């Protein structure tokens, strides 16, 4: 039943796409999911917007603001996602900051995720200690994976701890940066990717931040099970026909 | 020590370090080292030497005679406005720059609202020869022009925060983004008792010099080191925490924290966090913040840039929730009137932030003879334009 586990067992070079729910138009959320699956995405990361996204660069900030201005809330999002599993079969994660989750209620949030068929979450500002103490049981009882991030500065001991706490994949940041910075793969980045590969973690890894084209995607796939694209995709669907934009963007990777 | 931080970084239900992994190594480095560094004899010596010779401490505790006459109590003003750079903010920046040096950091970033913390940061960076970048909301850059000019003259780069309400909250977001993108050589000097643990505790320790001196000065002047009331304004809450720190465990001393009501707590244009807020996470800690039902942060409003913030520090949230502190609010109009009154009664032009604390005196009832200390956290030079416009001077 675990869609994420199944995917990593049968596939390599996994492509995960992030986009902001309710952007460019409030009602686009599920349509984008369907278009992405159709054109070859393996995992979807649907961002629920937050007013103060400190880990994000200008593009995702702007898409979040536009979505909020158009009326997006977690309540609205779960309402939209009721139709998600009609046509979408690939793993879906929700990504966002901890405060909206707290206000929605952690228990309610997990329940709503399970009901609409969400497989896991990425909550970058939810600390590991708090997750372990207050959230883990709730997440696991609803079969939700919680995905943690690591950076080149994350200590090895902590990486192993993260590996023991999660059961989806580990989100490898190519560098310590806000979203939307370009990936400059130099010797130090490659050393870092190779170092992580050498740790033989139980979880698969996905490289994110700075992946924007086929070349950076292929590079990332040399060291990890796949890669995550966010900012470049959000930029690509800003205007024009939505389905065409999604298809055109995905062709670069799945041509 | 009932109100101090516990070993997990919490004050009751509040605090913690809600930060993305990118910030973890920096914050963890601080957490492991801050007490060790602060308690070090050489650090203490250098810190206190600078506070004395450079900042001009101790700041006077001044018995304001005409105020006292007016209100029928002994009103003491703790003169943080007389510090070098004009506010209490420098107590913290001196402490943090010495700490940053000991951690081997080469580059300093800061956020600022009224510009006082930005100036205090730019000042210590000039003093120690370190690169300095200050993030400031575009709106605040407009209304605090003299402080922007001072920062530039001190060699700092002032970067405008153009998102959201373009004030203190947004400047803090930008500073955090900078820190994420510069994870190794940069120290972020947070200016208030907000942010992930250990910041609220660290800033409170550096600001606690305010109440440490006040106790000594009160003892000399009144024969008792115990006032009946201490008052301070609260944005994030650093001058208030400094003013409360050594009085917190003595429950007989009443702590009054004055928030900015803006145009009125129910006007939709307010920064009265404890009145309008709910528990949640903002800028790395669990506290009380103004937010929508969906958990989106609400844009605050105050005439005073230093109080124009939708949250309060976690320790304040704890003092509020436990009832140890009384949290009240003062409107824009009331604060400006109080600023003029202070100027004309005592010959002191207060910062509009500090004028909020002074304004609350008007609402208190005294039996007579109580000892009341008000933290005069800053001087009003930066606010002249606002005062002049408001009073048609």
TrEMBL record, chain A:
It comes from the Bacteria. Coiled coil: none annotated. It catalyses: (1S,2R)-1-C-(indol-3-yl)glycerol 3-phosphate + L-serine = D-glyceraldehyde 3-phosphate + L-tryptophan + H2O. GO terms for cellular component: cytosol. It comes from Pedobacter rhizosphaerae. Its EC number is 4.2.1.20. GO terms for molecular function: tryptophan synthase activity. The gene is trpA. InterPro entries: Aldolase_TIM, RibuloseP-bd_barrel, Trp_synthase_alpha_AS, Trp_synthase_suA. PROSITE patterns: TRP_SYNTHASE_ALPHA (PS00167). The keyword Lyase applies. SUPFAM superfamilies: Ribulose-phoshate binding barrel. The alpha subunit is responsible for the aldol cleavage of indoleglycerol phosphate to indole and glyceraldehyde 3-phosphate. This is Tryptophan synthase alpha chain. Belongs to the TrpA family. Tetramer of two alpha and two beta chains. Pathway: Amino-acid biosynthesis; L-tryptophan biosynthesis; L-tryptophan from chorismate: step 5/5. The active site is at 45 (proton acceptor), 56 (proton acceptor). Keywords: Amino-acid biosynthesis, Aromatic amino acid biosynthesis, Lyase, Tryptophan biosynthesis. NCBIfam families: trpA.
TrEMBL record, chain B:
Pathway: Amino-acid biosynthesis; L-tryptophan biosynthesis; L-tryptophan from chorismate: step 5/5. It comes from the Bacteria. The keyword Lyase applies. Its cofactor is pyridoxal 5'-phosphate. Coiled coil: none annotated. The modification N6-(pyridoxal phosphate)lysine is found at residue 89. Its EC number is 4.2.1.20. GO terms for molecular function: tryptophan synthase activity. Keywords: Amino-acid biosynthesis, Aromatic amino acid biosynthesis, Lyase, Pyridoxal phosphate, Tryptophan biosynthesis. The keyword Lyase applies. Residues 56-378 form the Tryptophan synthase beta chain-like PALP domain. It catalyses: (1S,2R)-1-C-(indol-3-yl)glycerol 3-phosphate + L-serine = D-glyceraldehyde 3-phosphate + L-tryptophan + H2O. Transmembrane segments: none annotated. GO terms for cellular component: cytoplasm. Tetramer of two alpha and two beta chains. Belongs to the TrpB family. The beta subunit is responsible for the synthesis of L-tryptophan from indole and L-serine. This is Tryptophan synthase beta chain.
